[in-house]
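Box 3.1 A note on notation
Throughout this textbook, protein chains are presented in two layers. The first layer is the amino acid sequence; the second is a token string describing backbone geometry. Keep the layers aligned when reading.
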Amino acid sequence: MRGRDEQEAVSQPQGLGSFDELYSAYFRSLYRYVARRVGPDHAEELTAEAFAQAWIRRDRFDPSLGSPSTWLFAIATNLVRRHRRTEERKLRALARWHQPVSVPSGEREVLEGVAAREVWPQVAAALLEVGPTDRDCIYLYAVAGLSYAEVATTLSLPIGTVRSRINRVRGRLRRAVQGTLDLQG
């Protein structure tokens, strides 16, 4: 009869390591990304679910397609997408609001550079104008701190597409707040 460690070693793909190694190496960055996207109330649950799905589907991991990090971020991004309707409802409500309000934690972290609370309706409206994949690109780049190449791998997009989407979202956000804040550039 094999021990648990022997069974685990036999059933894991090359480059993935044990569950403990995977968890130790990537928990912090994955949790931080998920928490900034959905807020701390759901982050622990979604991060745990991402690791659970990764481990259950470990036989699908292909190191030629990317690192364990990009694979985990892809899983987490898909889980976060399940929260998309709620996120969009919050953005729509915020875009209709004409007074300074507190902003849901996920959006606040993405747009830390925006100093005045009065611009949040414009920012929310600008984020609503872009598609879900464009929002994923900017969130993975700005919140998770992934490189263009890592965002491309995570979302299975060409790197040029990722660069143009991030640039387009930045431009929309800049234009949305330009009249409100004294921005340079």
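Confidence is low (pLDDT under 50) at residues 1-11, 111-116. The domain at 4-81 is CATH 1.10.1740.10 (Rna Polymerase Sigma Factor; Chain: A).
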